[in-house]
Design goal:
2 strands, two-stranded antiparallel sheet, single chain, mainly alpha, 7 helices
Length: 213
């Protein structure tokens, strides 16, 4: 898989790597399928993780490990959407807003997870090129995928927060194609957020804890 870490072409003075390009194109398609609530979003997410895992394995151990976690969460998402398929009028999954308790748990998991992963990356510098931002993006991605698996509209908010750090970090570290893709991610996120938000209003909503009846 050495060729995957070689240069594909140069764009605006930035060197585009094959693995970076292929993995992120698959990731972009995955996000578009997630917006459409297509079950195929999860096999494509798994394939994207597999491509990047193969590219990083034996070269960037930390990055390979992160992709392995992404693949596991993709399998979980597939299982969740298989169970929830057919609950919406169009035969796909029903989307909803998370309860306040779910939001609190996801925020706590993101905060604790980011600190724990950043400390791990700091202790083992070979695992990451920039421990704290890298940990934030990694944990944020996992939280976003979990929310997506549960059909929560907050999935899009989590992706937006990941993008805010992911774009400058990728450009700064030479992953130009990832940076360009994250910009497109941002547009898709806003579009998908609007669609899921409107869909969540069409069906019964779980009572938000602490909200007035």
């Amino acid at each position: 898989m050495t060729w995957m870490n070689s240069e594909a072409f140069t764009l605006f003075g930035q060197h585009i790597i094959w693995s970076d390009m292929i993995g992120n194109i698959l990731g972009l398609i995955t996000l578009a399928l997630g917006w459409r609530r297509s079950l195929w979003t999860w096999p494509l997410q798994f394939l994207s993780g597999l491509v990047l895992f193969a590219a990083f394995y034996g070269h960037l151990t930390g990055s390979a490990g992160k992709q392995a976690v992404v693949m596991v969460v993709a399998l979980y998402g597939w299982w969740q959407w298989q169970r929830g398929r057919g609950t919406a009028d169009d035969g796909r999954i029903t989307v909803r807003f998370a309860s306040w308790r779910e939001r609190g748990l996801m925020l706590a998991a993101a905060a604790v997870g980011t600190v724990a992963v950043a400390l791990l990356f700091t202790a083992y510098p070979k695992l990451s090129w920039d421990p704290w931002p890298d940990a934030y993006i990694f944990v944020g991605t996992i939280v976003a995928m979990y929310a997506q698996a549960k059909g929560m509209v907050e999935f899009w908010f989590a992706w937006l927060l990941v993008d805010l750090v992911g774009v400058p970090l990728n450009f700064a570290n030479g992953y130009a194609f990832s940076g360009f893709v994250y910009v497109i991610y941002g547009a898709l996120v806003l579009w998908g957020m609007r669609d899921w938000w409107l869909r969540s209003r069409r069906g019964p909503q779980p009572a938000l804890e602490g909200a007035p009846a």
